[in-house]
Amino acid sequence: MNANASRIRAIFRKELREYRRNGSIIATMAAIPLGIVIFPLIEVLALPASAASALLNGDPLVILLGIPAIVPSVVAAYAVVSEREQGTLEPVLTTPIRREELLLAKFLAALVPSLAVAYAMYAFFLICAKLFAQPAVASAVLQGPDVFAQVLFTPLIAAWSIWIGIAISTRSRDTRVAQQLGALAGLPVLLVAYLIAFDVIHATLGLALGVAAALLVLDGLGWRLVSAAFNRERLIAGTR
Amino acid sequence: MATSKSSASALTVDHLSKRFGDRVAFDDVSFVVERGEVFGFLGPNGAGKTTTVRTLGTLIAPTSGVATVAGLPLTPENGVEIRQRISIMPESPGLYLRLTVAENLECFVGLYALPDGRQRIERVLRAVNLVGRANDPCGKLSKGLRQRVSLARALLNDADVLFLDEPTSGLDPVAAHEVHELIDGLRQRGVTIFLTTHRLEEAERLCDRVALLNTTLRAIGRPDELRDRLFAKTLSARTVVPLPEPDRVFGGLPSVASWRHDDPTTYILTVSDAAVAAPAVTRALVSAGADVLSIVESHHSLEDVYLELINEDVEAGTK
User: Fold this and answer.
1) CATH, domain B9-227, list 3.90.960.10, 3.30.450.20, 3.30.70.360, 3.40.50.300
2) N or C terminus of chain A: which is more exposed, having fewer CB within 10 Å?
3) What is the pTM assigned to this prediction?
């Protein structure tokens, strides 16, 4: 399949324009990250210097991976079902666009703002920790491997989360239900992040590389699997 | 499996059927639409018109039968190429309401990967008289204006075959008239148009030929052909007072097959050729001493044809 850049760009730009003018999407992109970042931030800022050594065992930053786990899936869950509800899907599907192109464009349109929000929140957390936390606590938080893991895992988790969201969206008939399911789909990642943060699961380099490799494979498969499940006839005629 | 784009017919449909499980959407439909023709596709709600358009537009796969669309066999492999050559204006405009008119069109210029996007957008907006509304959000447009934007969108790719699904549905008479004028303009430019509609006067005015679908194809032809096929030609003769012996007046005329009363002074004459029969009937009435008020040919509209065929189906269904 030769993907056509013009068609992908057309949907990508359209999606970003729609997101910008959609209050519920903007609220989702702002409220969920703030909700996820606020408690670890308060905790880090309130910690005394003597508690810094405890931070070296766990990793409070991992909780921030909840942002790429939940925000993109909620946004992506909106992608197909909302077009179906508004009657805009049929005109798009009557054009030469292939389902793979449509889904890739929607994937990228959910990925770019989600990554921007996730990295911005992460930077905000680190800057606050550096400026306002006890120096020993800030040093414990700003560890190179943790920062690298955060940077690495954010796009991998976001990509997986988007494919789950789009898969939900192609099967749903109601936007709100799709977005709620999308948010639920991100919860297992958030749970694992909490377990690592509180050192219930001990993060090692081997574990990190293994999970990263698995996510990379799943992200690659996601496009193909969701494309295969995307059925023009079912989406247009409403047949099962 | 692509065939030449210069194939003579714009659409050929051969025994095409579509079923959704046990439900038959349309069955054993065959017709040909020539290039440059405006072809009307009529039928009641649920007759299968929209499903036929979606099938020919490669959105839905047929259950059986074959078709050629814009010179290409209707197969999944040809889907992208067929959709590049056609354009479909669905019944519901399906515009992105948060985007402006120009942004909506810009998106579709990209989807068709068309060159000279800006000029195209200006051209289609001029065609639908919307140049001044290019920067208005579609959500703020009236239903009629949205319909026009939808038509502009369908014109972007200079399609070989333009499918218009109920283009005047829900429009007021003025807006519907504007859409009719646009379709007339397209016909004059030689665009092949496949028009599904409920509005029979619309089909009669715009279409070269019409097909009447009620799950199966009930009739196909020019509107006047269908009228002739279904209804005998009749003359209506009105006199001031009833004729004393109408049998003697009409019975001897070779061009009159039969006659009946409509009311005491109106006679409905079944004739083979109205142009031949009318002078003969006039002469016969004058010879009989009748004071003639009028002799007119009875006209059956496409609506009469439609109702006749649909009523046949209803009666067949109740038996």
Assistant:
1) 3.40.50.300
2) C
3) 0.83
